[in-house]
Write a structure and sequence with these properties.
335 residues; alpha+beta; Aminopeptidase; 2 domains; 13-stranded mixed β-sheet; 9 helices; 30% strand; globular; binds coenzyme A
Length: 335
């Protein structure tokens, strides 16, 4: 069926309750699992809770009164983050579903354009293949950042021979150990220092300030926004004397057999000395011993040092997607 034949209506998301969107999100969860080995059901139920509380700004697409797509964003001060866009594939071909998603994006961007004092809009369409949704973002003057979704398969037969972390060599006064709850307060400064002037802090401005980095950590560590945090597979390199962190890796469980590295960063003065590699190997060994058969991560394609490191460790690209950014004062203006 072609979209031109579809009679679509677009209504404000706040008119809807969880029950109207449940089957659409079930369908979307199946696609997350098939494409990314990601169990999206926890995230989907969070979205439904927010829909029920009318906390999300967005639109629902209806065809003859039947819900067939949705888009939402959340506001954080004067920034909006587009959380998701999805249209049902049931009974329509992929191109028609994408066409509905493009219309949803157009509507939301138009609303955001008319939102007073909005300084920034971020989007990462992880589920959707690169390029498919670029048009409306291009028209609105967004910058696009190609990103990679990479995977390392863990073969239980060749369990890593990494020695216990206490004896992993480090120059003199650092020690690798698992993440502890008290690291929560030490981690923001590692994130802001590691990402200073980095392309990823253009895409996600939470990396720019300690407060932003703390909100990022809150979402990952204390909130099931991106899988379930896995402290046993999350590692730090800590100074033996003052206990400051030189580097950290955070890992979440995104489905029964899959861990996802949600953050890896090393203080600039410690980069290029094998810390990142060791953190990744420790994470891999922990996941293997916890019956995982794969570990995944996302990386900005332009971050060639990180992409090279992951490739050398055996990660391969499973999927490519886009991150988008509009900020006031950017050369091509949205208004
Ligand atoms: C990416 C990052 C975590 C890697 O950690 P690291 O401790 O620097 O990595 P390692 O020292 O283990 O590096 C492994 C390899 O990459 C090379 N490398 C690391 N950083 C590099 C850089 N900035 N430029 C060029 N090569 C680099 C190392 O020389 C080493 O090569 P080898 O394996 O052939 O010996 C770290 O550079 C970092 O924090 N970067 C900023 C934040 C970031 O990009 N995080 C990843 C987001 S997906």
């Amino acid at each position: 069926m072609m979209t031109s034949a579809l009679q679509l209506d677009f209504l404000d998301l706040r008119h809807f309750s969880a029950q109207h969107l449940r089957s659409l999100l079930d369908e979307e969860s199946a696609l997350w699992s098939q494409r990314l080995r990601w169990d999206y059901r926890n995230s989907a139920s969070l979205v439904l809770q927010y829909v029920e509380s009318h906390l999300l700004t967005g639109y629902v697409a209806l065809e003859q009164g039947r819900v067939c797509g949705y888009i939402f964003c959340v506001y954080e001060n004067n920034k909006a983050v587009i959380g998701d866009v999805f249209a049902s594939r049931a009974g329509v071909d992929e191109a028609s579903a994408v066409a509905i998603e493009l219309q949803l994006i157009d509507r939301l961007l138009e609303t955001l354009q008319h939102t007073p004092n909005l300084a920034r809009v971020e989007a990462q369409l992880l589920l959707h293949p690169q390029g498919l949704h670029r048009q409306p973002f291009n028209r609105a003057g967004f910058h696009l950042y190609p990103r990679l979704f990479m995977e390392l398969e863990l073969h239980r037969s060749d369990l890593s021979e990494l020695p216990p972390p206490e004896v992993v060599a480090w120059e003199s006064d650092g020690k690798y150990r698992r993440w502890m709850a008290s690291d929560f307060d030490l981690a923001p400064s590692v994130i802001t220092a590691s990402y200073a002037g980095h392309i990823d802090s253009e895409i996600n401005d939470q990396y720019l300030s300690p407060g932003g980095a703390q909100r990022f950590l809150h979402n990952i560590v204390r909130f099931p926004g991106c899988g379930i945090f896995e402290p046993n597979a999350s590692w730090v390199l800590a100074d033996s004397h003052d206990h400051k962190l030189h580097g950290l890796l955070l890992c979440s469980r995104v489905s029964a057999g899959v861990g996802h590295v949600t953050q890896i960063c090393v203080m600039p003065e410690f980069q290029g000395r094998g810390v990142g590699k060791t953190l990744l190997e420790l994470c891999t060994a922990s996941l293997q011993s916890r019956d995982c058969d794969a570990v995944t991560l996302t990386v900005t394609e332009q971050n060639s040092a990180a992409v090279g490191l992951y490739r050398r460790l055996g990660y391969r690209v499973m999927h490519r997607f886009d991150a988008m950014l509009w900020a006031s004062g950017m050369p091509k203006n949205m208004r």
